[in-house]
Amino acid sequence: MSANNDVLLHVDNLVMHFPIYRGVFQRQVGAVHAVDGVSFDVKRGETLGLVGESGCGKSTTGRTILQLYKATAGKVLFDGADLMSLKREEMRWMRRQMQMIFQDPYASLNPRMTVADIVGEPLMVHNAATGKEIQERVAHLLELVNLSPSFAGRYPHEFSGGQRQRIGVARALALQPSFIVCDEPISALDVSIQAQVVNLLEELQEQFNLTYLFIAHDLSMVRHISKRVAVMYLGVIVELAERDELYSQPLHPYTQALLSAVPIPDPLADARRKRVILEGDVPSPVNPPSGCRFRTRCPIADKICAETRPEFRQLKPGHFVACHFAERFLQ
């Protein structure tokens, strides 16, 4: 996954450990291995889906890429610039190009600020507009997300969850970014509203040539919106491939288990397919298993899985997998 002109974001061996302190003198006694050596590329104008169970490190990956967390190790290249080596003022300028849509629309909007203040705040912070120009930009942004400009004087508590998330989308678009991390933007919304928000994101992507890192645990929605999909488990990416390739021929046992749990509307097809039931619980990220992270729940785990961490390798063009025995699933 080498960087080239088509690649907007290049993540190389990203590591994010949160230290654990105890005692009167607050000595470090361990660390939470939230992200442990993640590598991938995101091409210009595409949507890369990042899926996995809750607590596997998806959101931490997104926040670390945007430098909201200071990475423990690794490299993040955005449009050729190494974000981890930028000075504070340089990073502040770079943030115009990178924005985030947060998971919870009820917690991500300041209840004491009006919609105009929320959407216009990025413009003020970055001196991108002043005075009447901010009001005009806010009105335009609200129209882009299918909200009336007359809502500008209202407060977040006056809106539904879907409307609040649209306000969050408008805020993310304020500085005309090229890359947006969508951190489970629909998981807190009603099913009837989820499709509306996803369709809005797709329309905006086509209109402004946006690049998305779409974080979610809903595999059906990820299949709809993403061009490529990365599967994450306990801080590491275990598989990455084109959307149709991943869903038709998963090469990692964890991906197979996830896909076997996706509901199918056809009852006959659902009855014929083989369900993969994982035993046990997800290990603690404080003390992850040796070798392969998934080995404690894997139905095909062997001795080598405990001794050696599997290489994240390319088995087919564009299809990467971290499993010692992935070849047995090739067709």
Describe the structure.
With 331 residues, the chain is an alpha/beta fold. The chain is 31% helix and 24% strand. The protein has 11 helices and 12 strands. The protein has helices spanning 58-65, 88-94, 115-125, 132-144, 161-173, 191-208, 219-225, 243-248, 253-260, 267-272, 303-307; strands at residues 7-22, 27-43, 47-51, 73-78, 81-82, 98-101, 179-183, 211-216, 228-233, 236-242, 313-316, 319-321. Strands 6-7-8-3-9-10-12-11 form an 8-stranded mixed beta sheet, with helices on both faces. A 4-stranded antiparallel beta sheet has the order 2-1-4-5. Helix 3 crosses helix 4 (132-144), helix 4 packs across helix 5 and helix 5 (161-173) packs parallel to helix 6 (191-208). The longest helix is centred in the middle third of the chain and has 18 residues, at 191-208. It is globular and about 65 Å long. The relative contact order is 0.14.
Q: Provide the low-confidence segments as ranges.
A: none
Cα radius of gyration in angstroms: 21 Å
Please estimate the helix content. Answer: 25-40%
Instruction: Please give the largest β-sheet.
Output: 8 strands, mixed
List the strand order in the largest sheet: 6-7-8-3-9-10-12-11
Overall pLDDT confidence: 91
Overall body shape = globular
SSE string: EEEHEEHEHHHEHEHEEHHHHEE
Number of strands: 12
By DSSP (H or I, 4+ residues per run), the number of helices equals: 11
Distance between the termini: 23 Å
Portion in strands? 15-25%
Helix/strand structural class? alpha/beta
